[in-house]
Write a structure and sequence with these properties.
about 500 residues, alpha/beta, seven-stranded mixed beta sheet, about 35% helix, about 25% strand
């Protein structure tokens, strides 16, 4: 059985802890690989490698850094199909979706290639007689990322390309459920010419995470995952004096007004709710139907849901693949099973689904799509982040009722409104309490030069990820005040400095 190891100092490092985790093929349910779990000593070795590399990398020219990143982008482009295949094999998402993930990650590599523009400082001359003031940004040192299973290539690429472009060195702890994609990213970075120690990967579980959060030589930690773990990451990282950005969970609402194009809204609800089997922090998990359109909209969504093609991700005919683990599949199914008893109407029940035409998938982690209507706000299916192919529909009499419902949610990651009314759309984007808003766009993930992040229990820390916020997170400011004195500038003056 293949073992996925660590990547330290520009080469593979076999695990020595004696602890391993299983890596499954979700489509077949079979364990095909194992991943080494790092010990504290192995995390320390990765940090030591990164710290040593920072001595030269942090002082390297922008031209050198960007030349490597341009080469890296070329290699990612050449290997995008291979990387997508690794994602499909270990996560389960269909190949086209995996290719989209790689493409979105590459957007941040492209942003990093232009880092020289982003890192331009500011200069004010003659702020006082023969005095100039400059502001610059410098790297932090060793920084770390802890990334989730649902985007094993994209989310790491949200972090380390910008971090290393800014002059930092990086330690990545990817998800233990699908670690091969991020490992391949590190191999390609070395092939592109990235010096040893600039990018390191430690595989593992809570032991590795806690050591990253405690390590005195790590200056900042980026995290994407569930809300409970995001809270933990923030508290523990801050306790140990680190800068932290921790992106948590979501319960994204899609508001549909009576004037909306219901055909479009139904299509987009399907795409946003069931793409990647609902295992996206930006998935639409609640549709809010306003006025008297609810029955018609639910009918259109149900019609489409029943016709989705579900199967292994490497089958080009599949539109949706399996979930990541058997345990997660069973947990998602439990929300559908309990929904009717908690007052919801089960319009489409996907819990009895089995894949046809693929006998190798008999033990896979598949779940059909489910649609729940008239879901009470007290039901578990509404209150919890399900992270699976379950779409809830709730009803609201008016726009005001709908916006209050959305804003009362504990999460504020993304949201969307479907309408033809420009005034209503503008009002919504100003009034809704969420970090990312779509107008007739159900999954409003920003392009690379804008930042990604939510509000409320969807973000812990001050800065969003990538874009200008990402660059600010991975650098620290310095202000330099300069005077080249004239011989007449001497003398003693204990008064407060004045700009004159």
């Amino acid at each position: 059985m293949k073992t996925i190891t660590h990547w330290i100092d520009g080469k593979p490092v076999e695990g020595t802890s004696g602890r391993f985790g299983p890596v499954y093929n979700p489509a077949s349910g079979a364990q095909e690989k194992q991943v080494a779990f790092a010990s504290v000593d192995e995390v320390d070795a990765a940090v030591a490698s990164a710290k040593a590399a920072f001595e030269s990398w942090g002082e390297s020219s922008l031209a050198k850094r960007t030349a490597i990143l341009f080469k890296y982008r070329e290699l990612l482009d050449a290997h995008r199909d291979e990387i997508a295949g690794l994602i499909t094999a270990e996560h389960g998402k269909v190949h086209s979706d995996a290719l989209g993930e790689v493409a979105r990650g590459m957007e941040i590599v492209e942003l990093a290639c232009g880092i020289s523009v982003q890192l331009k400082g500011e200069l004010s001359t003659q702020v006082s007689t023969r005095v100039d003031v400059a502001s610059i940004r410098q790297p932090l040192g060793v920084v770390a990322g802890i990334t989730p299973f649902n985007f094993p290539a994209m989310v790491p690429m949200w972090m380390f390309p910008l971090a290393i472009a800014c002059g930092n060195t990086f330690v990545l702890k990817p998800s233990e459920k699908d670690p091969s994609a991020s490992y391949r990213l590190a191999e390609l970075a070395t092939e592109a010419g990235l010096p040893e120690g600039v990018l390191n990967i430690v595989q593992g579980d809570k032991t590795a995470v806690d050591r990253i959060l405690e390590h005195p030589d790590i200056e900042a930690v980026s995290f994407v995952g569930s809300t409970p773990i995001a809270k933990y990451i923030q508290l523990k990282a801050v306790e140990h004096g680190k800068r932290v950005q921790a992106l948590g969970g979501a319960k994204n609402h899609m508001l549909v007004l009576p004037d909306a194009d219901l055909e479009l809204a139904a299509d987009q609800a399907i795409n946003a709710a069931y793409g990647s089997a609902g295992e996206r922090c930006m998935a639409v998990s609640v549709v809010v139907a306003v006025g008297d359109i609810g029955d018609e909209l639910v009918g259109k969504i149900a019609e489409r849901a029943k016709n989705l093609r579900i199967g292994p991700g490497d089958d080009p005919a599949s539109e949706m693949g399996p979930l990541i683990t058997r345990e997660h599949r069973d947990k998602v199914a439990s929300y559908v099973a309990s929904a009717a008893g908690q007052g919801a109407e089960v319009v489409v029940d996907g819990t009895g689904f089995s894949v046809e035409g693929h006998p190798e998938c008999a033990d896979g982690f598949f779940l059909g799509v489910s649609l729940l209507d008239r879901v009470p706000l007290t039901a578990d299916a509404y209150r919890d982040e399900i992270f699976g192919p379950v779409l809830c529909v709730v009803r609201a009499e008016t726009y005001d009722d709908a916006i209050k419902l959305i804003n009362d949610s504990r999460w504020g990651n993304g949201t969307a409104i479907f309408t033809r009314d420009g005034g209503a759309a503008r009002r919504f984007q100003m009034e809704v309490k969420a970090g990312m808003v779509g107008v007739n766009v159900p999954i409003p993930v920003p392009v690379g030069y804008h930042s990604f992040g939510g509000w409320k229990d969807s973000l812990f820390g001050d800065l969003h990820i990538y874009g200008n916020d990402g660059i600010a997170f991975y650098t620290q400011g310095k202000v330099i005040t300069t005077r080249w004195p004239d011989p007449s500038d001497g003398g003693i003056n204990l008064g407060f400095p004045s700009n004159s």
